[in-house]
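re: ur msg from earlier - yeah i can do the 2-acetamido-2-deoxy-beta-D-glucopyranose complex, just paste it... oh wait u already did. ok heres what im feeding in:
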Amino acid sequence: MSGSKLRQRKKIPKNAKDSRVDEQETPPEFDIDFGKYATFLLPPILLALAVTYYLYPQIFIDAFQSYMGLSDVEMSRVVKGPAISVEITADTMKRDAVVRAFQHSWSAYERDAMGDDEYHPISHKGTNLTAAGGIGYTVVDSIDTMLLMGLHQEYSRAREWVATKMSFDRNATFNTFEVIPTFFTRCGLLSAYHLSGNDTVYLEKAVELADRMIPVFNTPSGLPLTNINLALREGAIDPNWPEFVSSAEVATLQLELRYLSVLTGNSIYWEKGEAVMRRLKSSLLPHGLASIFLNWQTGEFVLSAMRLGSRADSYYEYLLKQYIQTNHTEDFYRNMYSDAMTAVHKHLIKKSVNSNMVYTSELVPEAAPDGRTTWRLTPKQDHLVCFFGGSLLLGATTAGALVRPVSIPPRPEELSEAGQRDWKTGNDLIKTCMDTHSTSTGLAPEIAHFRIASDGMGDDAMYPSDWYIKGAHIKPGELPPYDSRYMLRPETVESLFIAYRLTGNEKYRYWAWEIFEAIELHCRVETGGYATIINVDEVPSQKEDKMETFMLSETLKYLYLIFTDASVVPLDKYVFNTEAHPLPIFDTPPDLLS
Ligand SMILES: *[C@@H]1O[C@H](CO)[C@@H](O)[C@H](O)[C@H]1NC(C)=O
Ligand SMILES: *[C@@H]1O[C@H](CO)[C@@H](O)[C@H](O)[C@H]1NC(C)=O
Ligand SMILES: *[C@@H]1O[C@H](CO)[C@@H](O)[C@H](O)[C@H]1NC(C)=O
Ligand SMILES: *[C@@H]1O[C@H](CO)[C@@H](O)[C@H](O)[C@H]1NC(C)=O
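and the outut:
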């Protein structure tokens, strides 16, 4: 950013259209007669100025600003000319290496477990989410990646499977979050519909699934129940949390429901999704953060942790993405998103004690001895939270933009103050997420803890100064803690993809390639597929017999898109759902807006 800031601050065109420019005094013309010495003096003077400017540009910028009487803030509001962008061309060698990794995974799954929900690459077996039979979770999750990668043969077999074998008629209880983002977006039916050029097979399946699922919204609050029986078309209460539903679960269906209404002209999906958002808005707590649980009967938030990780992450993500989906027309979401980001900055963004790394922490409620509730700040960042760096950048250039389109990379004056804040925090968080990759394998752990003064570790040389993996000091033969694993998660590469598209800065491609190479080296199963590794600090790695479906649908898709040219799924025409399935941005059909 600083580079572009300096570049942009050099001069203001005299006849710039922005009224804030007109209010400033115009600098007088130079009117000095250098006389006959000018010919000799001018070149060395210009050279000296150029060298000084090259070495110390800030001197000139400050001088110019004070001459113009502009403060930093005012300066940053003067938008000069149309957006500038850089050309993003494909890196075909790296892009094709990612495609081969996808084929290495898909072919193993197709060989061993075609149609099963999940894949175990070491035992070469598949499993289903419930005993009632599979719903094709891995197949539908992977289809849009095949379409994007141009894998025609794999695609046509997968499509055939969807058309002839896929069934939702399963008499068993599924978790809504697994099923809907899995089938509205994880299963990516609507993205497959769009990217296949409107192949109705996918739309019909999506409508069938939505209609089976709609009964979960029939609660007193309108918040959907977490569990569903697809065969009986009945919602079910989660036995572990009978009164609760999680914020991320109820607020992560909207992109799909809304798009389905646009495609079918049936507004019921849109209305069910939007009623949830209205309910959430009216329940919001005074500080503006969402706690991870809500009561599905009253619709109120219940006393529980506040964080950007599991059970809350996509709540924040979808506030922004709903605003983007309808092409920046719904201020309802822009305002909710802005308020949420202000609250997140106020309460959850922290800096590490040693080198000021920006990270997000969690607020956990505790009962004080006198019965009051106190909040404990826990410096714990899930790998899941690494989506948030990219999300902040995307928010800065949309909800936080003063002009449209913004430059690539955005000039500070194109962003509001909140946009500039989010842009900075987003960049800082991505750096932190990359830092959590400085492990023996180059892969990030599932959970990183950051050092705080009260952690009691002192300056014990055994502990690092900024972040650590909790419980990682184990004796030989002991199993490493859950926190140590890397399960092929996509969130860091997702942020790198967004950062690369919004800046054109090659460092993001470089980082993405490092992660890809680490996955190849430590997670690849020679007979096919990739596996979770249980300790990012152990080489050679120990693998676990599981390849999460998001490897095919998210991790490899974002890696692929980092190395394509920018015309493949451009960010001004598509919004990615939380499972990396791109949906087209549309102008809201007026009859759907209530
Ligand atoms: C998963 O479900 C499908 C569909 O019912 C079935 O054909 C397949 O055998 C099941 N797989 C396993 C491993 O049970
Ligand atoms: C669904 O499963 C339940 C319990 O396993 C059974 O009692 C019920 O008859 C089944 N319903 C249908 C329609 O298959
Ligand atoms: C798909 O349908 C949309 C309208 O929903 C239409 O605008 C678009 O042109 C169609 N695409 C193709 C490839 O037919
Ligand atoms: C979104 O709005 C912009 C500016 O109003 C317009 O140029 C663009 O075509 C719209 N995009 C879509 C996908 O409707």
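cool cool. The pocket of 2-acetamido-2-deoxy-beta-D-glucopyranose (ligand 3) is lined by residues 197-198, 263 (CB under 6 Å). ping me if u need the other ligands too
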